[in-house]
Amino acid sequence: MTLQSLADKLEINELLARYCHALDLGDWQAFAALFTPDAALDFTAFGGPKGTPAQLQAFFAPILGGLKAYQHTVSTVVIELQGDCAKARSAAMVPMTRLDAEGREQTFMSGLWYEDELVRTGLGWQIKARTQVRSWAAALA
């Protein structure tokens, strides 16, 4: 492994983490900066859209705004570098808490995989394509 490949993998891991932070902070400007202008996203595995980052933002914003709490996480990242392109697969868990009609907290968990295509741009590594793959979902008591 070269120093460049180590640096690339570190930058890609940071990119994947910034995705989670942008969502959790509702920082839509930072969210948009993660993607190439022609990025194609497929979030149909959990009922989301297939389209652009702007379409994904329009889908996410009202859902996240209606929750009491949520936290996006990624782990077990595997990255295959191919010059200025890369493929990554990472596991994600997303707990989401809402209030029911009586004001009690209800928490739901989703487990999924992200399968990404990434490219090195003048702005650094960005996501060119992302597919969400469903693994599991559960409601916690």
Question: What does this 3D model show about the protein?
Answer:
The protein is α+β, with helices and mostly antiparallel strands and 141 residues long. The protein has a single domain (3-140), classed as Nuclear Transport Factor 2, Chain: A, CATH 3.10.450. Helices cover 30% and strands 50% of the residues. The chain contains 3 helices and 7 strands, in the order ααββαβββββ. β6 (105-121) and β7 (124-140) form a beta hairpin. The longest helix has 23 residues, at 3-25. This is Nuclear transport factor 2 family protein. Residues 4-131 form the SnoaL-like domain.
CATH class: Alpha Beta
Q: Could you say which overall geometry the principal axes of the C-alpha atoms support?
A: elongated
User: What fraction of the residues are assigned to beta strands by DSSP?
Assistant: over 45%
* Total domains: 1
The main pleated sheet reads as: 7 strands, mixed
Organism: Comamonas guangdongensis
Protein name: Nuclear transport factor 2 family protein
InterPro entries: NTF2-like_dom_sf (IPR032710), SnoaL-like (IPR037401)
Quick synopsis:
This protein is α+β, with helices and mostly antiparallel strands and 141 residues long.
Tell me the layout of helices and strands.
Layout: H1 3-25, H2 28-33, E1 35-42, E2 50-51, H3 53-65, E3 69-70, E4 73-82, E5 85-99, E6 105-121, E7 124-140
Parallel strand pairs: 1-7
Antiparallel strand pairs: 1-2, 3-5, 4-5, 5-6, 6-7
InterPro entries: NTF2-like_dom_sf, SnoaL-like
Domain SnoaL-like: 4-131
Protein name: Nuclear transport factor 2 family protein
